[in-house]
Amino acid sequence: MKAQSSTRAGENPPLRLSAPAAYRISVQGCLDDHWASWFDGMVLSRDEALNTTTLVGTVPDQAALHGLLIRVRDMGLPLLSVLRTEPSDTPVEHKETEGDDYDYC
């Protein structure tokens, strides 16, 4: 029996482990922009009112996604959500904040 490869309108296409995909990862705490390089160039945006940081960008494969999640864990940041998005949902600018560390807002 062959698996169906078509998708209905509004459904995400099947995800392959070795394919690039865009993600939006939300964590508790505020990270400064200099952490973007540590998160493989993901775009960081902060919501100081909610004390959260959102990392948005494309990762080359599932192994890279797991690597990002390991970094979140190693920093002791509570993971709030991981959402696969459309590549066009990637923001192009950073929200500016002051400070040089990832202390909570």
Word description of this protein:
There is one protein chain. The protein is 12% helix and 27% strand. It has a domain at 29-89. The chain has one helix at residues 62-74, and strands at residues 21-28, 43-47, 52-59, 79-85. It is built from 1 helix and 4 strands; from the N terminus they run E-E-E-H-E. Strands 2-3-1-4 form a 4-stranded antiparallel sheet, covered by helices on one side. The model is unreliable at 92-104 (pLDDT under 50). The protein starts with 20 loop residues before the first strand and ends in a 20-residue tail after the last strand.
Key phrases:
105 residues, alpha+beta, four-stranded antiparallel sheet, 1 helix, 12% helix, disordered C terminus
Topology:
Layout: E1 21-28, E2 43-47, E3 52-59, H1 62-74, E4 79-85
Antiparallel strand pairs: 1-3, 1-4, 2-3
**Biggest beta sheet summary:** 4 strands, antiparallel
Low-confidence stretches: 92-104
Count of discrete alpha- or pi-helical segments spanning 4 or more residues: 1
Multimer state: single chain
End-to-end Cα distance, whole Å, is 54 Å
- How confident overall, as mean pLDDT? 80
Helix and strand element order: EEEHE
What is the strand arrangement across the widest sheet?
2-3-1-4
Number of strands: 4
Helical amount: 10-25%
Give the CA-based shape: globular
Helix/strand-derived class? alpha+beta
In terms of DSSP E residues, the strand content is 25-35%
Task: From the alpha carbons, calculate the radius of gyration and give it in angstroms.
Answer: 15 Å
